[in-house]
Amino acid sequence: MLDSSPEFSTSIQSETTLIIGPPKQLPDLNATVDNISWDDLGKEGFIIQSLQHNGKSTIWIGGNTDQALLYGTFDFLKLLQTHQDISSLNITSIPQTKVRVLNHWDNPDRTVERGYAGSSIWDWHRLPDYIKPQYLDYARANASIGINGTVLTNVNANAQVLTPYFLKKVAALADTFRPYGIKVYLTARFSAPMEIGGLDTADPLNDDVQKWWDEKVNEIYKHIPDFGGFLVKADSEGQPGPQNYNRTQAEGANMLAKALQPHQGIVMWRAFVYSNETPDDRAKQAYNEFKPLDGKFEDNVLVQVKNGAIDFQPREPFHPLFGAMPETPLMMEFQITQEYLGQGTHLVFLGSLFEEVLDTDTYAEGPGSTVAKIVDGSLDNHSLSGMAGVSNIGTDRNWTGHQFGQANWYAFGKLAWNPRKSAANIAQEWLRMTFGNDEELVTKAKRMMLQSHEAVVNYMTPLGLHHIMGWSHHYGPGPWVTDKHRDDWTSTYYHQASSDGIGFDRTASGSNALSQYALEIQRKYEDLDSCPEKYLLWFHHLPWDYKMKSGNSLWDEIALHYQMGVEQTQGMLEDWQSIKDHVDKQRYDQVLAFLQIQHNEAKWWRDACLLYFQQFSQKPLPEGVPQPEFTLDHYQNFKPLFVPGI
Ligand code: GCW
User: Fold this and answer.
1) Which regions span the lipid bilayer (predicted)?
2) How far apart are CA 81 and CA 67, in angstroms?
3) Is the pTM of this model over 0.85?
């Protein structure tokens, strides 16, 4: 669709009429088209059609509701902004997932957990009386990419957000967002009946507790008639949950679901559940906890699953729960904020990561059982479906700290609407709407974006390495992190480096996490000849001189990947410098400074990790990988202070 000729203008030869409206109000227009199934469009789908009407060329943006017309109008504006050919349009666009929400890990005190773009935009203290203009901009921005929900509060929940004091503030935001088709959700702290309800238990099978939640939900709906429902983190990282009462995750979720059912509310129940005691490979625990509960959740429960089984790493194999619970609608949880991917200063276009995950075949019901088909509900015919993105938004002037962080917010919205949309297409659209249609700019900046995910994997965690970042703040390299209060929060637990090699054995000879995948995946990843090298050290512990497909030893391959990542950031820097004349000074300068930071930190990651692992490999750096600037001792003793986001 994108026109290639730079001189192409959007002027239309003859005068064209633009009509925006529903078919019921435009019967004569509707009579001229016969290929539209208005029922299939539902409440959110739209059409954009070029047609002749009363002898005049006309473009009709049609849909059944105001929300659909809003989505269609934003899509048409995108066509104009990106200089696409609008002379003969025939667009039908229907969202593939039902619930498309941002998760704000925002605290009532306006700090943002894992946030790198300033404070929380929710000015609770001045709500409900002061509606910041930014709230309206937020609503428009999200509606422009089809996001139809927002969870306002942190999953490490504060029970106070469910009190009347807060609910009237939440209601003011809900009123602001409603015209843009955005529903408001809140995180529900499982122990709220005790903390704000005066009960002495939160046992989900206790009648008084059920009654408390029923009444609390009714109270919420008095404030917010179209309240979306609850997002819940339970039995995880110290959060209370049903395990406190020897109840299952389904019993916990269903208690809330029953309270919400009379109001058509939903529960998004997170599968991010793992024990405090590290009894088994952390990558296996959510599957062990949830798979036996397949089909046991109420119909208005979505189980929200992170893309990978550990925790939003630069790259993870898809979470084994995808494909393992056909009776239960599973919702994808992606992280848009870059907790493990360079936080507030690294340019990492996450559309590539999201696309890689969604396109992966789980083989759950034979070939073609992609994660996307599980998430949009089509594989198992679930009408309830969804995608959540942990927001990267804050009070920074450009919303996301890094200018290119906006591209990740955009990519999330576009993929939640259509999980099969290509990352390249998303990047190009965003660039044209953000920086303009100059072809050199679009070409070079798109190249930067589309190589940036592979670059960060290379300079942080190549070949399946994972979770080797700094302690607690997760900033910078920390492969030496060990001996903490829990093994599975250290780095040595995951890389298992020793004189005999490196990597986490998740095959039958190790934790056997592989057994949680479909047989086709098990066979492919178990076999060293067929296991994708990008997952090699996620599933295998291999000797330093293991021979890679390239002929290099594993040690050399690891070192060369780290070096490749550094060189890729250098290339991004040079690409950006080469388009200086096509970008306004303020944005150019900020991105340039951040790319310089990113390049320096890529070298930091390379040097610190290779020096640390070299202790075990006892091998020299291969040709092409420079000697580290400092000693290992220097890197291990460097303690960044006041790192944002924790
Ligand atoms: O990604 C990790 C983060 C925590 C986060 C947790 C979760 C909100 O380090 O900050 O807590 O996972 O996803 O619940």
Assistant:
1) none
2) 21
3) yes
Q: Is residue 446 included in any domain, yes or no?
A: no
Residue whose Cα lies nearest atom 2 of ligand 1: it is 311
pLDDT at 257 over 70: yes
- What pLDDT band is residue 14 in, cutting at 50, 70 and 90? low
Beta carbons within 8 Å of 629's beta carbon, 6+ residues apart: 603, 607
Which structure tokens are listed for 210?
Answer: 């059920």
Of residues 178, 227, 180, 149, the one with CA closest to residue 67: 180
326, part of any domain = yes
The residue behind tokens 């589309």 is 450
Dmax of the chain from CA atoms?
80
Do residues 238 and 288 lie in contact, with contact meaning Cβ atoms separated by under 8 Å? Answer: no
DSSP code string of 90-137: EEEE--SSSEEEEE--B-TTS-BTT--SSS-S--TTTTTT---HHHHH
Kindly indicate the confidence band of residue 312, based on its pLDDT and cuts at 50, 70 and 90: very high
> Would you say the CB of residue 274 lies under 6 angstroms from ligand 1?
no
**Ligand 1 lined by 339 (C-beta under 6 Å):** yes
Q: Is 311 a catalytic residue?
A: yes
Number of domains the chain is built from: 3
Substitution candidate for ligand 1 out of 103, 105, 232 with most atoms within 8 A of CB: 105
The pLDDT value given to residue 13: 52
**pLDDT confidence band for 8 (50 / 70 / 90):** very low
DSSP label of 534: G
Whether residues 253 and 396 share a domain: the answer is: yes
Evaluated on CA atoms 23, 29, 30, 36, the torsion sign reads negative
47/169 same-domain check: no
User: In this structure, which amino acid lies at residue 127?
Assistant: L
Domain extent at residue 605: 457-504+541-637
- What integer is the mean pLDDT of 185-210? 98
Nearest-atom number in ligand 1 for the CA of 335 is 1
Output the CA 154–ligand 1 centroid distance in Å: 10
Give the containing element (helix H, strand E) for 351.
helix 351-359
Phi-psi region at 250: left, alpha or beta (left = phi > 0; alpha = psi -120 to 50): alpha
Q: In the listed set 42, 74, 93, which residue is the last one of a domain according to the structure?
A: 93
CATH code at 386? 3.20.20.80
Annotate 411-441 with DSSP letters as a single string. HHHHHHH-TT--HHHHHHHHHHHHH---HHH
What is the CATH number for 16? 3.30.379.10
